Automatic annotation (TrEMBL):
Keywords: Cytoplasm. Belongs to the dienelactone hydrolase family. It comes from the Eukaryota. This is Carboxymethylenebutenolidase homolog. Coiled coil: none annotated. InterPro entries: AB_hydrolase_fold, CMBL, Dienelactn_hydro. PANTHER family: CARBOXYMETHYLENEBUTENOLIDASE HOMOLOG. It holds the Pfam family DLH. GO terms for molecular function: hydrolase activity. Transmembrane segments: none annotated.
Amino acid sequence: MANESRPCPCDIGDRFDYGGRGQEVQVEHIRAYVSKPSATTDKAVIVIHDIFGWQLSNTRYVADMLTANGYIAICPDFFVGQEGWKPSNDFSSFDAWLKTRDASKIDKEVDVVLKYLKEQCGAKKIGVIGFCWGGAAVQHLMLKNPHLKAGVSVYGVIRFFDGGSSLLHPTFFIFAEKDDYVPLEQVTLLEQKLKQNCKVDYEVKIYPGQTHGFVHRKREDINPQDKPYIEEARKDMINWLNKYL
């Protein structure tokens, strides 16, 4: 099997046994998972899933984590009905699969979600976070969308977006030191471009010893050496949103 000799690098980690505290809703042509805090708020975060799709329990866990910190969180199906990647899939088909799911072609869906958050949820300050494929989508949105206030790109695949560095909004970039899918030389080049061209606040942070997926694909208790960095990255993510939303 091709995916035994060359597994998808995003398969690293665990699928959390987690049900979620939110609910699934229909937002025009998009299905979405929505989680709301008990107290009224005008702050919301769009959570962009990785290649495994909007129903992955890990992503809903993060959405609920945001809600526990006072945010309305919504994780829409940015594949719009197409299946997410499955670990059992043959990785030799990955590139062909990916061509039908472009992280820079989500603007229509984002506009629909923004309208829903503003009109149905009372949100006025909206940020975005994303993981892997979703991290690349965050990079795209921070370059293009004027209606978002801040973004967090978590091991966003740099080669998936156009390499632009003139960000419109404060953006926090989380990377793993030992990420086989996002090489550190690409991260270094991104930093150089941001330093030259970016006019808004940004931060690029590399977490020692970590691998792709560590923020949402590893349990906190999976390894004593990893736990501090998993918790630190999640805290950094929340702090960035708190600062700019």
